[in-house]
Amino acid sequence: MVEYINKKIKITYGKNPEIENAVLAGHTLSDAFNDFNTVSLSYAIIDTPYARQFMTNLGKCNTRIDTNKYAFDWNMYPTYGHDEYLELKQYMNDTICILQDMSIQYTISDEMKLDSASNDFEIDKLNALHLMFETVSVKLHESDLLTFKAAFPYLETINQLVHMLEGKQSGDSVIYSVIRVEGNHAHRTLLTDAEYETFDARNQSGDLVIDYGTVGKDMTAAWSSNDTDLIITQELKQQEYNHAMFATYLGPTELNENNLAYQYKWCEENNVAMYYPDYKDPKYRPGRMRIGRLVDITCEDALELLLDYNCICGVEIIDE
């Protein structure tokens, strides 16, 4: 039987008429959000050493609105179908044009643009776009901070769109939310092998997990997008920290029980061991660490409720 600690995380969702696309919003909490119609969901925290460490890290974050409320960035990834998929492709092309017009010193080729009339995944282009996001972001940050600040919102938009377009189109209702509580890097701890061993690739509706929170792609992302270039260039970025970044999932349960075996098979077929001889180490395990569960409402009712909301406007720790 699962046991829980006597603290919960409360997430408040709002309706913001100014947000056209919740996927790309990523707003930080502001007083204006208090004016929106809101609804809250609570997540009980599982009583494990790793979940307790997460709560400790969260509790140390110093960007608080008041005693138990936090400043944060967020993204919501709702359901999308065929028409929305094509719209996201066009959004990607429009964003590429904006970056090209900014005349930043790193060339972004027209060849990276997607076919917005085709439902094809164009995975090679998505892989190239994600690498461009990483490379240009780092180089601009190191060489031209002013340009970086102007360009980064559009670079981050490309990053978000890549992850959306790599996902599945579905007729099922799904909402995946990511919350990154603001705080300095001192408020995180390195993941241990024991923590990596708890990583689970099953997406279970109502889960709260520690988010990846890392710029780049891990081994599982490389495998699932067949990004062999990332292996050859040895540019994998595994999650390293237990930190105050977390995600929630509402939608059909996806068991994904054979992901580790499929990942190993892909590694063997693509000679990954030549570049990552430790590819079977715990840190490469697929999935995320589960630390909480939705309570006080069914997953089905919560999902139906949130379909009418488009922003996250509150995060706080509450007593049970």
Plain-language structure description:
With 320 residues, this protein is an alpha+beta fold. It folds into two domains: 4-79 and 178-319, no CATH class; 82-166, no CATH class. Helices cover 34% and strands 20% of the residues. The protein is built from nine helices and ten strands. The strands form two sheets. The protein has an eight-stranded antiparallel β-sheet with strand order 3-4-8-6-9-2-1-10. The chain is globular. The two termini are 18 Å apart. Mean pLDDT is 86; it is low at 27-33.
SSE arrangement:
Elements: E1 4-14, E2 38-46, H1 49-60, E3 72-78, H2 82-101, H3 123-143, H4 145-166, E4 175-181, E5 188-190, H5 193-196, E6 207-210, H6 219-224, H7 228-232, E7 241-243, E8 245-250, H8 259-269, E9 290-295, H9 299-306, E10 311-319
Antiparallel strand pairs: 1-2, 1-10, 2-9, 3-4, 4-8, 5-7, 6-8, 6-9
Helix pairs in contact: 2-4, 3-4
- SSE run: EEHEHHHEEHEHHEEHEHE
Enumerate the strands of the largest sheet in spatial order, edge to edge or round the barrel: 3-4-8-6-9-2-1-10
Integer average pLDDT = 86
Please give the largest β-sheet: 8 strands, antiparallel
N- to C-terminal separation? 18 Å
**Record field, number of beta strands:** 10
Radius of gyration using CA atoms only: 20 Å
Overall 3D geometry?
globular
Residue share in helix: 25-40%
- Secondary-structure class: alpha+beta
Work out the count of structural domains.
2
Low-confidence stretches: 27-33
Q: Count of helical segments? A: 9
Strand content: 15-25%
